Amino acid sequence: MPGAGGTDTRRRGPVVAALMLGMALAALDSTILATAVPRIVGDLGGFSVFSWLFSGYLLAVTVTLPVYGKLSDTFGRKPILITGIVLFLAGSLACASAWNMASLIAFRVLQGLGGGALQGTVQTIAADLYPMEQRPKIQAKLSGVWAASSVVGPGLGGLLTTYADWRWIFLVNLPVGLVALWLIVRCFTETGHRPATARRTRVDWPGALAIFACGGLLLTALVQGGVAWPWLSTPSLLLFAGSAVCAAATVLIERRAAEPIIPGWVWRRPTIRAVNLALGALGLLMVAPTVFLPTYAQAVLGLGPTAAGFVLSVMTLSWPVSAALSSHVYRRIGIRNCAMLGTGGAGLVLLAFPLLPYPGAAWQPALVMLALGGALGLFQLPLIIGVQSSVGHAERGTATAAILFCRQVGQSVGAALFGAVANATLNSRLADAPRDIRTGLPDDLDAVSRALEHAGALTAHTADYLRRAVAATVDHVYLGAAAAAGLALVALVLLAPRHFPVHAEARAAEARAADAHTGDGRTGDGRTEAGGPAGTGEGDDGSEAGGAQAGGRA
């Protein structure tokens, strides 16, 4: 029996297992690598450029997301997912055989080319497999994969590095990926809603290259600015100027292309435009807990790396639980209101962080992170489901990739922006230090953190002053993250429709699912199973229905 969007669901269980394994490849990638960096640098050298092990992968994933989204709509999900798994495994095998830091970075970029296909296509297939009402179940499973990876990854990386060799952190991807590949090839069959053969040959490769160049230059400027070189230096200015030129070229190419990689409707339709901006703000605010909370836990609270990781990981425990339960909320109050409730709650939780006492106990920031995960589960998942349900099967890959792309760009912008905020706050605190401790103070956040790891070498007064400086720095970052949550809320209030439109295909799938359970497609009060009133969506050019009749709203 075909699922939502025309995917064969007779062997849906093995396909879901394959999706979870594919997501595990991407989710484990960064967490398992982080603990092995010192050993890698000691073996291969290249300390000055090791950050590109992460940045290169991030760049490749981000700039390829929209390309793979369009290709999955053009050629189908299965070949794109298979391509992503093969590229990721080839990159993993190559990373394990790297002979110096430059080769390892290059192979990490190859991994990222596969990771971009994994992230976007897994989310799209999950939406194809399940009707709107049931999507929180699969999304909660995928979120659970990320949660488990954040807990298991660092420990597994440490064990492999300590008792085997750092190259095994890449080799362990092979059995996981091969099982996922086998399941996809054997069990996953796409049926129905196939693009026309004529469209398959009209791939906008010039647009894909322009997007890749624009995204690569912009993200390189954001990632390396203020780190490898000053923000107003020649390299930064050249990279920003180059990205602006490429952006202009991308717009011209995409307007003329018969089948653009990023169609104009991903910004013209109010629903997708609002979600793009809201998830961009989500990427922005996520920098505060993921990047700066571990530093706070170790430098201010004096926790070890494992305990500091636990303080952060509690967020990933509450997030999937909240996401799984979000359907009960948005079916009653609507997708937009549910997302507004989540982002409003996240903003309040982030504002509460600077109110924590100093010196505090580890359970206090852990409780804040637990509440933050619960709020974000109500925020992100309903928006993704809302966008995926507002388009047909032929547009779902592009729409999903667009919102994930905006979230990734938001993370890169957030890392640059909050890095600048952190440096400005810390430099101000260090400049205002009492004269008796000013001499010999470290001059950046990393140096301060390293100094506090050996606090016994500092006077009690100096150590306390540095801890307070770090606490103030992280407080300011969390205030900035709360402002990002506010931006997401404004985007939803001003731009998102009150009721998200539901495409006719999604509504038909809901009717089939409801009929299987109740014998008809409606509940007792005449409302549809998706929780929105039955009706007709907009159908004009650039509208929510995208030229096809929508089946209602949620």
Can you describe this structure?
The chain has 554 residues and is an all-alpha fold. The chain has 4 domains: 1-190, MFS general substrate transporter like domains (Growth Hormone, Chain: A); 204-258, no CATH class; 265-498, Growth Hormone, Chain: A, CATH 1.20.1250.20; 505-553, no CATH class. 74% of the residues lie in helices and 1% in strands. The protein contains 21 helices and 2 strands. It has helices spanning 12-34, 37-44, 52-75, 77-96, 101-129, 135-163, 168-171, 173-187, 197-200, 205-224, 234-256, 265-268, 270-299, 305-333, 335-352, 363-389, 393-431, 435-438, 445-453, 460-495, 504-518; strands at residues 501-503, 550-553. It has a two-stranded antiparallel sheet. α15 (335-352) runs antiparallel to α20 (460-495). The protein is globular and about 75 Å long. It starts with 11 loop residues before the first helix and ends with a strand. The relative contact order is 0.12. The model is unreliable at 195-200, 520-543 and 545-550 (pLDDT under 50).
